[in-house]
Design a protein that fits this description.
single chain, about 220 residues, mainly alpha, two-stranded antiparallel sheet, 6 helices, 2 strands, about 5% strand, Synaptogyrin-3
Length: about 220
């Protein structure tokens, strides 16, 4: 019975419906997080450094290179994580081991929660450094749009990553859905033996839900 209906997925080996998968809240949040992370990373890497009268490029956030580097690292790491777990989510039903599913979902909980924390720090760090930036350091508002974009999308990333954390926790708590364990899975295809006067623990017409993905 390993891998049947565990941690929110459907039966092992079931065919993935791309439309159903795309409509899942977790998938939508994952895609949005990927887009927001791309904006944060691209904004800083492309326009986050300005030239203020010398050949040296300074970070637009109060000339604090740590601020720019932090935003770049968080954005890039988030892009890679979203890409990896998007593929894992799509292939989740093909994983037969309940233990492996549990490890994946637990890892998703940890990484999503950590991602929420990183973007929380990013938002306050970048906002603070931008507030302290001297207007003379950004002539003609050079890089200002990129700085504001990085701040705004760091904030909305907090919301999407928090949503991913909630979804991952929900899947982890869901655990194994025993209602999908039919008699055929329990004894290899035979009929459950029922003693006289005892009601079978499995409904005769037990069927698996058609939705193979978790609610969240």
């Amino acid at each position: 019975m390993d891998g049947v209906g565990s941690y929110g997925a459907g039966r092992t080996g079931s065919t993935v419906d791309p439309i159903t998968f795309a409509k899942q809240p977790q998938t939508i949040l994952r895609v949005l997080s990927w887009i927001f992370s791309l904006v944060v990373f691209a904004s800083i890497i492309n326009e986050g450094y300005v030239n203020t009268g010398s050949e040296r490029l300074n970070c637009v956030f109060n000339k604090n290179l740590y601020a720019c580097h932090y935003g770049e690292v968080v954005g890039l790491a988030s892009l890679l994580q979203c890409t990896l777990f998007f593929l894992v989510d799509y292939k989740f039903s093909s994983i037969s081991s309940v233990k492996e599913r549990k490890k994946i979902v637990a890892l998703d909980v940890g990484i999503s929660g950590f991602g929420t924390f990183l973007y929380l720090v990013s938002f306050f760090f970048l906002t603070h450094q931008w507030y302290r930036t001297n207007t003379d350091d950004v002539p003609l508002n050079q890089g200002a749009a990129a700085a504001r974009a990085a701040i705004v999308f760091s904030f909305v990333s907090i919301l999407t990553w928090a949503g991913l954390t909630v979804c991952a926790v929900q899947r982890y708590l869901l655990g194994t859905d025993v209602t999908l364990f039919t008699t055929e899975h329990m004894d290899g295809g035979g009929t459950e033996a029922v003693e006289p006067g005892r009601v079978s623990s499995f409904p005769e017409n037990s069927t698996a839900p058609t939705n193979q993905f978790p609610v969240c």
